[in-house]
Amino acid sequence: MPFLAYWIVTVISWAGTFVGLFAFVHALTQRADAFTAADRKTKPVWLAITGGATAAMALFRFFGPGMIFWLAGLIAALVYIVDVRPKLIEVQRGGHSW
Q1: 38 with 91: CB under 8 angstroms?
Q2: What average pLDDT score do residues 31-57 get?
Q3: Which pLDDT tens digit goes with each residue over 6-23?
């Protein structure tokens, strides 16, 4: 692999890991009852999903034999960020009645 391509793949791999870490830390800092109020899975389930996603992206690389695990981890973290996180923010700001 050429030098530039190696660095691009490395940056993509680590960027994905940081996305997973962001999702995990966000889930960790949210109230447990907000997950239920937002009609999403429970907090421990999302901690397991985002934690596993982060671990998969840290252990495997974007371009390599474990790429499928890296991609699955990225998708799981992005589902949390795109779907669950906005609902949690809405619920905790008072968008729904508790």
Answers
A1: yes
A2: 96
A3: 999 999 999 999 999 999
d(CA 54, CA 51): 5
Angle in degrees, CA 55, 61, 64, rounded to 5: 135
pTM equals: 0.89
Domains of the chain, by residue range, sit at: 3-92
Assign 63 a pLDDT band (cuts: 50, 70, 90): confident
